[in-house]
Specification:
The complex is a heterodimer. Chain A is mainly beta. Chain A contains no helices and eleven strands. Classes of the chains: A mainly beta, B mainly beta. Chains A and B meet through strand 5, strand 9 and strand 10 of A and strand 4, strand 5, strand 9 and strand 10 of B.
Chain lengths: ~110, ~110
């Protein structure tokens, strides 16, 4: 069966520091992968999606970036965090019936 | 521009009664709709979906209804249970990369 992992689970970082969040998927190959953010009191905002290695599409211009160095690895990064980057970050992959399955999430607090 | 709207931020129902969660969309290109359930500090869990070629899909206690002319869908939970208490997100898709557009969610509270 397919499994999606995210780490770290929680992270507290100062403003201006770099960020790297990792997502890996097991049990499937060449999945569409997605990064979402849920800010406090808000819905789920799609940040990036990838249909294959090295292919990244950005949905929202901001100081975040994403990379897909391997088929089942998706990384979210920032060179300098802002206070507004705080939120709950979710990675997802798409199943056969086009539903998306989400990982456990990373709670990021920028101080 | 909010293409998927969940106008009720919260809903409270009694255990055993029906819960009805509503969702409206504006993009006529959407052709696939999904409902997710989310507990705090966890990722959303897929519940049920419906294609635009159908007007109803049922899975156990969960039924989703789609009214394309009104661009409206609803999730019915019967009977409601305390464990159903969570935030419910409506989502829609219509692109070739299967991007999902989410509503802001409705917090359902089922009281024992």
């Amino acid at each position: 069966s397919q499994t999606i992992h995210q780490w770290p689970a929680t992270l507290v970082q100062p403003v201006g520091s770099p960020l790297s969040l990792e997502c890996t998927v097991e049990g499937t190959s060449n999945p569409n992968l997605y990064w979402y953010r849920q800010a406090a009191g808000r819905g789920l905002q799609l940040l990036f999606y990838s249909v294959g290695i090295g292919q990244i599409s950005s949905e929202v211009p901001q100081n975040l970036s994403a990379s897909r160095p391997q088929d089942r690895q998706f990384i979210l990064s920032s060179k300098k965090l802002l206070l507004s980057d705080s939120g709950f970050y979710l990675c997802a992959w798409i199943g056969e019936a086009y539903e998306q399955y989400f990982g456990p999430g990373t709670r990021l607090t920028v101080t | 521009d909010q293409q998927v709207k969940q106008n009720s931020p919260s809903l409270s129902v009694q255990e055993g009664r029906i819960s009805i969660l509503n969702c409206d969309y504006t993009n006529s290109m959407f052709d696939y709709f999904l409902w997710y359930k989310k507990y705090p500090a966890e990722g959303p869990t897929f519940l049920i979906s419906i294609s635009s070629i159908k007007d109803k899909n049922e899975d156990g206690r969960f039924t989703v209804f789609l009214n394309k002319s009104a661009k409206h869908l609803s999730l019915h939970i019967v009977p409601s249970q305390p464990g159903d208490s969570a935030v419910y997100f409506c989502a829609a898709s219509g692109g070739s990369n299967y991007k999902l557009t989410f509503g802001k969610g409705t917090l359902l509270t089922v009281n024992p």
